Structures are given as C-alpha cells and as structure tokens.
Amino acid sequence: MHLPDGIIPIEQSVIYWVITLVVIAIFLYKFSRNEQKEKATISIALFAVFFVVVTSLSIPSPLGVPIHFFLIPLVAILLGPWNGSIVSFFGLLVQSLALNMGGIVCFGANFLVIGVIVAFATYGFYRLLANINDKMAIFCATVVGIMFATFGQVMILILSGAMNLNSLLATLVPFYLFIGVIEGFANVVIIYAIRKIKPEIMDLSTM
C-alpha cells in the first residue's frame, strides 16, 4: 500500500498531509498526558522497527502497488489506535526516506490508509466484539481493519484519477482480503503468546 510520488495530485496530497499533521498533534497532546511515557516510548520504538521489517517484505501485484503484511492491526490491539498510528508514522517515514518505499509527497495518503484507517478500524471493531469472543474479535478486527484500509486506498486512487473502480476492486480487494485472513490468524496466535509472556504490554493500550 505504499503509494509512490506522482500518482496523487499535489493539491490532494496537501490535504492528506494536513490530516497527518492533525493526527500527530493529537497524539502528542495525548502522549504528554500519558503517565507511562517511558514504557510507551520503548514499545513504540520496538514496534516501529518491526513494522519497517515486516512491511518491507512485499508481494507484487498486477497494478505495481506492493502488497504486504501490515502489523498495525496487531499494534492497535496491543497498544491502542493512537500508538498504532505513531508506529506507522515512524515506520513509513523510515521506509520513505531510507528504503524508497512510498513518496514524501504521497506520505500523508499512505499514513492516512495504513496509520489511521487500519489502526482505528481495527481497534474499534475489536472493542465491539471483544466481550463476545476474544479470539474471534482479534481475527475479525484484523480483517476489517485491512479491508477498510483497502477501500480507503481505492477511494484515494479513484479521486486521483490514476485508476478506475473496476480494476481496483478486481485486484486490490481479493489480494488484501487474503492478506487480512492470514494476518488475522497470525495475530490471534501472537497476541495470546504476548499475553502469556509479556502481559504488561497490554497495560499501554489506553492510547
């Protein structure tokens, strides 16, 4: 989902950058009031490194837009949506500047899809289902978060005029649904392992 520069018009990219700056400003305000700043900082840094590594493993798609695992659904469930967003922000920034994955002009659009839509859709759906069945909630929230992000990217590409709806739905949606299912199962295993080995990480999920 790393969109390169040149796909989105400048005027649209500016809007996505403004949204990004607003999200970061809100995060910084909330983080300044966090009583567990030190623990949260360490967890954010570690997950940001994992994010760079995991999401750099790309699967080619017919459209030339790389498909990869997200990790942000996992982070959002473990640390909360705001921490999930900032992990994505730092990870995407490193990838854009150092690994040539995604562009600086398109950074806001990439962050909106991966750092905002994925994190908040996943966390919201998880909280909705958690009291019914926790494992089902983790799996379904992961799939829903990734699919929300997929449709978010579809809308961005349509608004940019780069691609048409039929092509996007026929290619991106099946691929990301497959990725969502695989990542959903993986997240169930990983989260339950973390709860047994390192349960204190879950205490940071207030953000």
Q: Brief overview, please?
A:
With about 210 residues, this protein is mainly alpha-helical.
Mean pLDDT across the residues is 87
Strand order within the widest beta sheet:
1-2
The Cα radius of gyration reads: 16 Å
Overall shape: it is globular
Report the structural category: mainly alpha
**CATH class type:** Mainly Alpha
Second-tier CATH architecture: Orthogonal Bundle
Element order, helices and strands? HHEEHHHHH
Kindly list the characteristics that best describe this protein.
globular; Arp2/3 complex 21 kDa subunit ARPC3; mainly alpha; 2% strand; two-stranded antiparallel ribbon; 207 residues
How is this structure best described in words?
The protein has 207 residues and is mainly α. It has one domain: Arp2/3 complex 21 kDa subunit ARPC3. The chain contains 7 helices and 2 strands. A two-stranded antiparallel sheet has the order 1-2. α1 packs across α5, α5 runs antiparallel to α6 and α6 packs antiparallel against α7.
List the topology elements:
Layout lengths: L9 H23 L4 H19 L2 E2 L7 E2 L3 H8 L1 H18 L8 H23 L4 H27 L4 H33 L10
Antiparallel strand pairs: 1-2
Helix pairs in contact: 1-5, 2-4, 3-4, 3-5, 4-5, 5-6, 6-7
